Prior knowledge:
The chain is an alpha+beta fold. The protein has helices at residues 3-19, 41-60, 76-82, 109-118, 157-161, 164-171, 215-234, 284-293, 319-330, 365-382, 393-403, 413-417, 437-448; strands spanning 23-25, 37-39, 65-68, 73-75, 91-96, 103-105, 130-133, 136-140, 148-152, 177-186, 201-211, 243-247, 259-267, 271-282, 299-301, 306-308, 311-318, 331-336, 339-344, 355-359, 385-387, 407-411, 422-426, 432-435. Glycyl-adenosine-5'-phosphate binds at residues 155, 157, 187, 189, 198-199, 202, 204, 274-277, 314, 316-318, 320-321.
Amino acid sequence: MPEEKKNDVMEKIVSLCKRRGFVFQGSEIYGGLSGVYDYGPMGVELRNNIKQYFWDTFVINREDVYGLSAAILMPETVWEASGHVGKLGLVDPIVECKICHERVRADQPEAIADHEATHKGKKVEWSEPKVFNLLVETKLGASEDTATRVNLRGEITQGIHVNFKNILDSMHPKIPFGIGQIGKAFRNEITPRDFLFRQREFEQMEVQYYIKPDEEEGLIQFEYWKNLAMEWYLGLGFRKESLRFRQHASDERAHYAKDAWDIEYNTPFAGWKEAWGIHHRGDWDLKRHSEYSKVDLSYYDEESKSRFIPWDIECSGGVDRAFLFVLLEAYTEDKLGDDLRTYLKLSPKIAPVKIAVFPLLKNKEILVEKAREVYKLLKKKFGAVVFDDNGNIGKRYRRQDEIGTPWCVTVDFETVEKDAGVTVRDRDTGEQKRMSIEELVSYVKSQLS
Ligand code: GAP
């Protein structure tokens, strides 16, 4: 794809997201907050559908993974134990531009190049790299003297590890078992960029899977979780060629990782970018939390009559990145003569609206009444159904296409006068078929399962 065309797609997605109620800049009327976004009515539905699909696959439909929702605020000691505060961990090298003093990540050549381009050919000199703590700090407590410094979690992982013993004591799981969680994480990213790709407030979905400390078991489980994550991602509607695995080089791995692989998406804005991380964390976290909290986080294995600190295979994805990549993958333009039809080819399973119901004419009471009746019936069955009588049919189709609604149902005179069913228009082919309501319900059910 030519360069200007690639960036074009990202710009079109940003504009579609605002126009159709998917995503808005955070606190926009006050000038916006960099790296922070709000999700609108369509966005929240798409996001929830992605999260539900994660939860079903990784937690609900399994016997060996327990759900958790831990707090966002955690004491600083947690981050010392995990290695995120101090010499290791969530620290980024940054350099400062000597012309305008803006700071940029030293380890992101594209950010450096973008910044140098803003000085239009002038030679840019940079300061020596300095280390910058990515954790967002705040205080808890009413007065300055009694306030305790806490951090907003930089990864949801630590909420899981600090609850390891609680899950052991309350659920009595047998190893191997996992703990799954979805929740917000916060990072003081120096250069938030590329819309939802790198934000300061974002959401993660992950499983920490605890296994016996055994090399062979580690390899088997690592492979299993890598493949499950890829299968799940493909299930969002991606083409195989849009995704790939990439192993981290040893100097690229986080401080806790014995091995690390990413699932990457081939973005139109910057080529292959991380969507999901699978990390072999060994016994790093539980061991460190045992040392720092002085609470024994070992596991007693009845089978082998031995006690050990389990190893952990981490499977961690970004909700916002999945959301952005889904939109980039689904965005489609079809040329119809001089007209351009734009639509989101979303998998029906995650589409924010499944069906839109229209009366052919908005000022014919008999049509509106019947359309409302059909709408109510479908809404009861499928929930995410809308009624739309705004503008002409063409405009309604265009609106629903940009939201990614798979089926538009029109109630016309034949529906009312001849009991001839409704016309159902398919988003991707544009084909219209007449169906009875019963046929429509079973067709949609089959497509959603
Ligand atoms: N617990 C491991 C961990 O946090 P990570 O690779 O830093 O690993 C996991 O993050 C996932 O979270 C990434 O694959 C990405 O999808 C998402 N993510 C990380 N930083 C992000 C950011 N600044 N904005 C949006 N998503 C982010």
